[in-house]
Amino acid sequence: MTQGHRCTGRMHSIPLGMAGCPLHLRTDSATVAEIASDFFPATGFRTAQQSGAELTLLVRTHQDVSGPKYYFPIFRGRNQFVHADYGNDGSVWFDLKARAVSGIVSEHLIADVELFRCNVLAVIAGVLAPSLGLIGLHAGCVVRNGKAVLLAAASGVGKSTLTLALAMRGWSLLSDDWTFLAGELTGLSVWGMLTALKLLPDAVRYYPGLAALCPAPALNGEMSFEVDPWSFFGVGRAIHATPVSIVRLERSPCACGDSCVHVSRCDSEEMQTALFKEIEQLPAGINQGDGHRLSLIERVCALPGLKVRMNGNPAAIAADLDPILSEHVCG
What is the pTM of this model? Predict the structure, then answer.
């Protein structure tokens, strides 16, 4: 438990946005306000979205060094309540039915901007999403002409390296790993956030600039490079777009030294089965949105779908896929 916070500065009250849903943040830290404004840009609100969420994040000026320290949060939950425990760096509480988030974090935690984004703000986004009617898809997403192609795959298939390779061919990068899906009567939309691109250590073979960095444990425990793709690689950025196609990526078993790509159609039933394996389950007390979630999955899987079995250099794979995917966004 986090104790002993005393508010010494003025409170900041600012509007934010998450995947088209309005958020409202109260914080006593100008640093938290600035980082959160970049991470949750207040733009592109969906007109049918009537309510959002309330966030309160306070900063503890004196850290209890005698308590435990968790690099990653430890989660506990019951019904609509979820607790993310950061040890002596603070804690965050969620009431998902009320759409309310309250937390106290240490100055040490917010001093590392990327750590704060990944381990606090991205955690808030992921836990809060279902109660806002959103689905977090384990999928990369690239955008051209305001239209998006989703790249779905299990961990380790090469989704992030391929997403980056497509972005380096002129696509805008919306997300490499988690993409939020929203649906209204007018159609579907996909949304990304200002999170680091995560590349496994073997990606240095294809992106030698990573050799100057050191891999570190990611939130899921994998050793990886985590970089800002828009500044490090100079690719374009997209925040939201209209999805027009979804691609299921699989690792090809071919053992040849050259890169190989095999593209085939993927029907909606097969795509649904694959996506459901990657979607996190809601807490036991939050099941009133299950019908909405199922509807969103069915709608996104009804988009033109492809299955891509691949192996080898992501740049070569992206060169083969680029004209195929471009047909979907230009058609």
Answer: 0.84
CA 296 to CA 276: how far, in whole Å? 11
Within a 13 Å sphere around the CA of 281, how many CA atoms are in the beta-carbon half? 6
Q: 92 to each of 30, 204, 312, how far by Cα in Å?
A: 19, 35, 42
Q: How far apart are CA 107 and CA 96, in angstroms?
A: 26
The CA-atom distances, in angstroms, between 322 and each of 73, 169, 256 are: 39, 8, 22
Give me the residues of the chain with pLDDT under 70, please: 1-9, 44, 46-51, 62-71, 219-221, 254-258, 278-290, 331
Task: Encode pLDDT of 35-78 as tens digits.
Answer: 999 889 887 676 555 568 999 999 987 666 565 666 678 888 88
* Beta strand residue intervals within 118-239, DSSP E: 135-144, 147-152, 172-175, 178-184, 187-191, 197-199, 216-217, 223-227, 236-237
Q: What is the DSSP letter of 240?
A: E
Name the token pair of 208.
């030698």
Q: What percent of the chain has pLDDT over 70?
A: 85
Report strand pairing: 216-217 vs 223-227: antiparallel
- Please provide the distance, in angstroms rounded to a whole number, between the alpha carbons at the two ends of the chain: 55
Which domains are seen in the chain, by residue range? 12-132 (no CATH), 135-330 (3.40.50)
